[in-house]
Please model this.
Amino acid sequence: MIRFLDISNHTLFWYYLASNLAYLTMLIVAIKTSAAHQRRLESYRLRWIGQTPLTPPITIIAPAHNEESSIRVAVRNLLENHYPQLEVVVVNDGSEDRTLQALTEEFRLRPVRAVYVPEAKSALVRGLYRSDVDARLVVVDKEPGGSKADAVNAGLNAATSPYVCVVDADSILEHDALLRIMVPVLEDPKRVVAVGGIIRVLNGSEIAEGRMKRVRLPRKSIEVIQVIEYLRAFLIGREAWAQGNMLLIISGAFGLFRTDLVRAVGGYRPRAIGEDFDLVARLHRHLLEQGADYRILFVPDPMCWTEVPSDLKSLGRQRARWQKGLLDVLWPNRDMLFKWRYGRIGSLALPYMWLFELFAPVIEIGGIVTIVLAACLGALSREFFVQFLLFGYAFATMISIGSVLQEEITYKRYNDWQDVVRLVTYCFLEHFPYRQVHMIWRLQGLWQYLHGDNVWRPLKRKGLESASVR
Amino acid sequence: MASIFEKLWRLGPAAFVLKAIFAAVVANGLLLAFILLRRAYRKWYFAKRDVRVFELRKSWDALISGEIPFETWRRKAFDRGIVETIVLDAFEAAGPEESARLLKFLRTSGLIEKRIFEARQLKGWRRMRALVALGRTRAPEGIPALAEGLRDPALETRLAALRGLGRTASPQAAEEILAWLGERGLTVPPLPLQSALVQCCVERPQLLIPHVQNATGHLREVLGRVLGDVATPSLGSDLLQFVGDDLDELRAAAARAMSQSTSGFAQDVLNELARDPVWFVRLRAIVSLGKLSQRRAIPALLRGLTDSNRLVRLRAAEALVGLKTEMVPIFEQVVAAQDRYGLHAYLAALENADLRVQLEIELQASTRVNEEDKKRLQNVLQAGSLLAEEPATVGGNIKSPAGQG
Model:
């Protein structure tokens, strides 16, 4: 038994070391890439991109379900994007409130016979509308499909541009976000098939009329911790993975895709729990199986601001869902693991996801159990244990501060001193007890999925209106 | 020699962890110090800069006109940077008169000379920055230095030079770009190149013809697309040589360029290209036929309406809707074609152009259609579907492909 615990604790140590080293490598790659990206932007004038006739059209797809209170502001914000050839397709996904009426009143919608070719699966479409106020706006009214993927598919079927940008209707896109996200596409239109943008936390910021007025940190601790998580995930994780063309997740709240390719893979999988991750994984599979020379990239400066859960219950549900989504994608794609034809995705990105994302909560809980057992049996070096904790704490803090540093040296959206001090302070505080609770949520997600609870459920949000009041 | 793993193993986890803790704590301290010091420095720097910008803006006219001697600010790097930034930003929004004034200032103050010198002498990102600034001035004397930048080994620097040349929008810059392409081939992504060439060749598209003839591979495609964008009626017969080209892109470019041609053969050539086996060639031909907007194009456009490609159908429908004087006969023929995708595309285009009511009125008033056909056409227009068509589904998940209405 003692021998087993000893081996287990050693394994745990090496696991943490490997995980932290992987993150450290990503941090270094991300800082280097961001610096290069900043320098590259110096030679770009975004206005020039907007002025050239070669900038391809984009269709924004915004699924909306019961968004009556915020849909007007959100759609106005989308239509105000600075982009030369824009089409906005709002999908009313069987809302039970007055979402469609609100849109009809605000944008004077009239029924049209717009071309709708149902190439991607979605629930029954009741009607298509075009705005008399702004002809670029098309509204697809459909039966509830039970998932965001289903709604996006309906939008995809109505889209007429070569690129689609999928956004959440309750998110705020910065006005030059589309120009920025198109930069890599314009550089290499043949190879770049999808681009992810950065998602930032909206809570606490001041907005008016759908526009971001002032970026502030949220008040609640749980929201500030999520700010750090988002910075870490996007500015370190995605930036680094994209460098190796191994990006597996483009957030469902803001991502750009080549329309023909999304249609070629059958659109979003309606029953997928993590539809964004699922789509990108299928795109990689499709393109790798065809032996295509392609790139799926991440651009850190086109920003989309989204509301994050502000209470523990909602956050727990979201994280459980993310974990379910992870398993829901990794399991069907297990055949890609360590196969030559799937290149780096099969040999590096997916194994990393299995080992350090999917199994992480299981290994963590296993580690806690063996440490407790070892302590009870007197087989635990107390000195080593304390050192191990200190190391884990200091290292994880370093990664979090690193992500804040990334934000500081690149995009610097938190201008207030007070905000930065709070952000840095939370880098030290997030590890206990949030991390342990987070682990439990993730375990719950796995448990639920393994017990057949794998239905997509929307999260309850306050909506854009609430974000304007600090 | 022992491997790193053996060394780590011998070191033992405890000792290793102690060192790791120390390293992590030091790293945390350094990161925090860096963030705080950087913030403090930037706060001080921008406060100082804002004050100076305010002072310079207060005396801006005197500064631009030279009343304030240039030497008073040109020798100070801090002031020079501010003045240059303000001028270049002003350039972006300036009209022709203001642009001329700003350019004169840039010349007389020596700022352009300085940037030309830097673009030639510096390396790396400093050179790139100089090229970007030089390009933003749009000064013709910057063209040789920008052209030299095209030969830089770094891609970003080459792109900065290319964009700069594009900004000048002059045939001289086009000649430099084309000469460089002849010499080095395609060493930049195609889109910035296309964009720069489109801007520079607008005045003299003839410059492109010999290069398109001599280029090979991907470069030929790119040049062909540029030609399609900038072609003018004056190119007329020059374009004909590309109609039967082996390269799809070039045929598409010729189709696009034909929309600019006023000669009679353009219509025939486009009719031919509208039957091309490659969809985007057909698409370009249909779009061009739409632009020419002639009655003779109707048969080709109707054929486009039943094309296997969705985009071709959409553009053909838009082109047909654009022929407003022929609405009723066109609608008759659309219905007669018995192609429901074509009909839906046409009706969608009609509604997007808000012309459905007009068609109803014209149909009602038409004397050349008999009453029975009139009623049948009215029914199709109302129902949005062919009479023989199943009312239910397309692909099983939409009530009608035409939606509600």
Observations:
- The first helix of chain B runs from residue 4 to 11.
- The radius of gyration of chain B is 32 Å.
- DSSP finds 24 helices and no strands in chain B.
- Residues 105-230 of chain B form a domain with the Leucine-rich Repeat Variant fold (CATH 1.25.10.10).
